[in-house]
Design brief:
- The complex is a heterodimer.
- Chain A is of the alpha/beta class.
- Chain A is 30% helix and 28% strand.
- Chain A contains seven helices and twelve strands.
- In chain A, the strands form three sheets. In chain A, strands 1, 4, 9, 10 and 11 form a five-stranded mixed beta sheet that branches.
- In chain A, helix 5 packs parallel to helix 7 (192-200).
- The longest helix of chain A has 19 residues, at 103-121.
- Chain B is 60% helix and 0% strand.
- Chain B has helices at residues 15-43, 47-73, 76-85, 92-103.
- Chain B is flat, with a radius of gyration of 19 Å.
- Chain B starts with 14 loop residues before the first helix and ends in a 27-residue tail after the last helix.
- Classes of the chains: A alpha/beta, B mainly alpha.
- Chain A binds chain B through residues 1-2, 4, 6-7, 9, 11, 13-14, 16-17, 20, 23-24, 27-29, 31, 34-42, 44-45, 203-206, 218, 227, 229-234, and chain B through 73, 76, 79, 106-107, 109-130.
Chain lengths: 266, 130
Amino acid sequence: MNHLLRSHAPISDAVWSLLDEEARERLTPALAARKLVDFSGPLGWEHSATNLGRTSPLASGPCEGVAGLQRRVLPLVEVRADFELSRSELRDADRGADDVDLEALDKAAHQIAVAENVAVFHGWHGAMTGIGEASPHEPTPLGDATDAYPRHVAGAVDRLLSSGVTGPYGLALGREQYRRVVETAEHGGYPLLDHLRKIVEGPIVWAPGLEGAVVLSLRGGDFVFECGQDLSIGYASHNSEVVQLYLEESFSFHVATPEAAVALKA
Amino acid sequence: MGFDQYHEPPGELSPATRTFARLCASLTEEAEAIGWYEQRISVETNPEALAVMRDAQGEEFKHFSMDLEFLLSRTPPWREVAQGILFQSGDIVEHGEEAEEETFEGGGSGPAGGYEGGSLGIGTLKGVWR
């Protein structure tokens, strides 16, 4: 047993499988950052920091005649979304109910996916720098008018090419921007989604938590998501009515090539 | 060879699964090549030819290892089992049994979950477009 303490939970093997599958189904569509950046790991719960290959000077050495440097690392963060399920509902799941109320799990899954997206695309003050804030390119306002989206996205691709950043590229769209894109057909009925996909030559990803949009290179080596413990469900406590669980992961995010992305403001 | 690395219709497979299958096929080919070179080296008497073949076999070691690392990085339970077996001193079979038990405690769907330490096993989604 590890720190997730799953075997202490009053939950049968079959229901654990149900909860894990439900979480995977809810997380996968929303984990936008993982669809666009490099993923390293999982390296385990014990993994605490990402090597940056950098050092900081130390004021003095440990003794005369010896100089010293201190390694700089990027510490991993832990994120956790708590949720509570009815034990009565879980007992019904064991009886074969196919409409078990797992809304709290669904909500926690969405929240932790949003947290991951926000950290990667916008950054997390004091913990990691996001793609948008690292980019040296001036963010372009995307605006509300979808007929201007192809121009803005093509402009972003042009800026990447001008910086020597090759494709293919991906486009992450915030919830509102994604909705506008999928509901829009251009003159002649051509779906805007298909037009944008042709411009970036890569995926267009629904990214809840992102405000605006980001165009970035998918060539690899530019953005690294380092995973310690991958997303997991753990057990916290229970009483006669409910069981307290949580979704948890540990990760760091590092931008190796800031110029390989262009943010488009909402 | 056509598309015979796929066991299911390629159109029904996700891009990530197709890539996984390609690397599995590549891993097999590299292992075969290592075995072939081992046999050739064992019977060759020309020192220069031996040096060439040893160098070529070294390339296959590298290719096999790169293929394996790619596959392990995308398959958390496989990675965890491998970590319990590879580069360990002692009884290989014993390590294998222990690694399997630790990874799939409870038969793969129990409290520890079917993946590494209860992980949901999501990993990278690069290549998943929706």
